[in-house]
Amino acid sequence: MMVAAEVLFGILVLFMGRELFWLFVGVVGGMFGFRLGLHYLHGQPHWEILVAALAAGVLGAMLAILLQRFAVAAAAFLAGGSFLPVLWGELGLKTGHLHWPLFFIGGIIGALMSMILFDWALIILSSLTGSVLILDVLHLSIIGRSILFIVLFVSGVVIQSLRMKKRRPLTEQKSY
Questions:
Q1: What pTM does this model have?
Q2: Rg for the chain (alpha carbons), in Å?
Q3: What are the 10-residue block averages of pLDDT along the chain, 176 residues in total?
Q4: Which residue in 54, 61, 82, 165 could disulfide with 26, CB within 3.0 to 4.6 Å?
Q5: DSSP 67-125
């Protein structure tokens, strides 16, 4: 059940993260909440960790609706911060003591991208997040993961950018 949900959210965020930015923010909040829950609620029942992750995701989605730019910047920080250590590891490099510095560097890059290039930051970061969510459930070799990651990421960026051209950028739409 969790695998199906992760793939479904991964596909939605991969191909519609810009348009459904609240879902992207909610998914990133949920992912971050789950990781924090695993660390700080270690030894607690699994359902408590899932509830904490769900609460973080719902809070992120609500913030995205109410405070669009702030929520996207926060999600971009968390997505960029989560992605850089993963990328570092996928390249075969050990994170070790560099995990938190890499997290903060990636987070700052993600947040800056969201402030400067709002729509493109949403497209790139949601494509990265969707790709990682889908890859998390697949058991592939490093080469297979790398190839599939590139294919998923590029398809997400291309499809979302084509959809963006058909609609006004989010920065021009009114928030209600």
A1: 0.71
A2: 16
A3: 82 91 85 81 83 84 81 86 84 84 93 88 91 90 92 96 75 51
A4: 61
A5: SHHHHHHHHHHHHHHHHHHHHHHHTT---GGGHHHHHHHHHHHHHHHHHHSHHHHHHHH
Structure tokens at 119: 């729509």
CA proximity to 121, closest of 112, 133, 130: 112
**How many C-beta atoms lie closer than 10 Å to residue 54's C-beta?**
16
The answer to whether the CB of 125 falls within 8 A of the CB of 24 is: yes
Nearest Cα to Cα of residue 111 among 91, 145, 83: 83
Residue 106, classed as helix, strand or coil, is helix
Q: Among 44, 171, 53, which residue's Cα sits nearest to residue 115?
A: 171
> Would you state the structure tokens that stand for residue 87, as one six-digit string?
């990328």
Residue spans of the domains in the chain: they are 2-167
